């Protein structure tokens, strides 16, 4: 028998690796169950947890709207497998194709399912597209470390279609695209004026402590001011249960305001980061999911800037 050439052996190895990746992903079932919250509108609510090997990154809310012109998907989830399973979940509801996939921002649980959808359907704000191009690779690698085999075959795919704020008519649904910022440099909010559903992305958390890796707290509070003035019938946060009132907006605002005061005072008092981490959390926040872990992460992410402001003499105003 003639020995295989080096090229042939390489091709076989690549083929085998591909099958291993696909089998690993196929073995993971997110159990996605769409819940109807309004006419033509479904939400898939993630767990109020940290990323883990157990949940595969399914801590995010995704959603879709079935319109006469096709399905509008809002966020594609944390992995290729999630995106594929989201497509199958949509197909159980409607035979209409997915026409538009909106990424609300560039955090990995909101866009790493993009691979499952046609490239021409992917859209986001320009700064979100830029963020996926610049940080998508490292965010994807980190998700592999946090979620393991659930991420098999996942690669970051940036939308090619930039969005601008304003009205978007989509198959009988009057969508309003609202460009805000604060959780990240660009946070897309979608208001479906036909149903009154407001998709707030990660500007709003419900029952879960907000994450802050790219946060600008004053801009975030300004965005919440605008959202609180927006009329809606249902509020879909980025994380946590769907709500019928502004409670999650107020909850998010209260946490961010306290966090800002805590870090400012600590910096003014000359505390180092280790000391800040030992400060007690108010009782009102103990019911928030993953509050201890998110507080620690927020201190690590945000406190150096507060220290720098304090050292430069930019003290808090009385």
Describe the model.
By secondary structure, the chain is an alpha/beta fold. It has a single domain, classed as Ribonuclease Z/Hydroxyacylglutathione hydrolase-like (Metallo-beta-lactamase, Chain A, 4-Layer Sandwich), CATH 3.60.15.10. The protein has eight helices and twelve strands. It has helices at 6-26, 80-93, 108-111, 126-147, 217-228, 247-268, 273-277, 291-311; strands at residues 35-38, 41-44, 62-67, 70-74, 98-102, 122-124, 161-162, 166-170, 173-180, 187-192, 197-205, 234-239. It has a seven-stranded mixed beta sheet. Strands 8-9-10-11-12 form a five-stranded mixed beta sheet. A hairpin with a 2-residue loop joins strand 1 (35-38) and strand 2 (41-44). Helix 5 (217-228) packs antiparallel against helix 6 and helix 6 (247-268) crosses helix 8. It is globular. It starts with 5 loop residues before the first helix and ends in a 7-residue tail after the last helix. Mean pLDDT is 93; it is low at 10-24.
Secondary structure blueprint with pairings:
Blueprint: H1 6-26, E1 35-38, E2 41-44, E3 62-67, E4 70-74, H2 80-93, E5 98-102, H3 108-111, E6 122-124, H4 126-147, E7 161-162, E8 166-170, E9 173-180, E10 187-192, E11 197-205, H5 217-228, E12 234-239, H6 247-268, H7 273-277, H8 291-311
Parallel strand pairs: 4-5, 5-6, 6-7, 11-12
Antiparallel strand pairs: 1-2, 2-3, 3-4, 8-9, 9-10, 10-11
Helix pairs in contact: 5-6, 6-8
């Amino acid at each position: 028998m003639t020995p295989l050439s080096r090229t042939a052996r390489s091709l076989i190895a690549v083929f085998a690796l591909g099958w291993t990746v696909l089998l690993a992903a196929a073995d993971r079932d997110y159990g996605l169950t769409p819940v109807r919250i309004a006419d033509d509108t479904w939400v898939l609510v993630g767990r109020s947890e940290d990323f883990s090997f157990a949940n595969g990154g399914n801590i995010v809310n995704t959603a879709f709207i079935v319109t006469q012109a096709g399905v509008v998907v809002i966020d594609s989830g944390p992995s290729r497998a999630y995106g594929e399973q989201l497509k199958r979940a949509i197909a159980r509801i409607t035979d209409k194709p997915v026409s538009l996939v909106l990424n609300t921002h560039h955090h990995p649980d909101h866009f790493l399912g993009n691979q499952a959808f046609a490239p021409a359907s992917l859209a986001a704000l320009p700064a979100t597209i830029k963020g996926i191009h610049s940080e998508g690779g490292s965010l994807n690698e980190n998700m592999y470390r946090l979620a393991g085999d659930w991420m098999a075959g996942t690669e970051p795919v940036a939308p090619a279609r930039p969005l601008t704020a304003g009205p978007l008519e989509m198959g009988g649904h009057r969508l309003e695209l609202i460009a805000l910022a604060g959780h990240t440099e660009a946070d897309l909010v979608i208001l479906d004026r036909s149903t009154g559903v407001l998709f707030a992305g990660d500007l709003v958390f419900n029952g879960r402590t907000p994450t802050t890796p790219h946060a600008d707290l004053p801009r975030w509070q300004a965005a919440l001011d605008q959202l609180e003035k927006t009329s809606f019938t249902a509020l879909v946060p980025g994380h946590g249960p769907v709500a019928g009132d502004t409670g999650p907006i107020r909850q998010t605002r209260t946490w961010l305001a306290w966090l800002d005061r805590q870090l400012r005072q600590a910096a003014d008092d000359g505390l180092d980061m280790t000391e800040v981490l030992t400060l007690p959390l108010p009782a009102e926040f103990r019911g928030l999911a993953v509050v201890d872990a998110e507080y620690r992460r927020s201190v690590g992410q945000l406190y150096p800037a507060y220290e720098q402001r304090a050292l430069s003499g930019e003290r808090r105003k009385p």
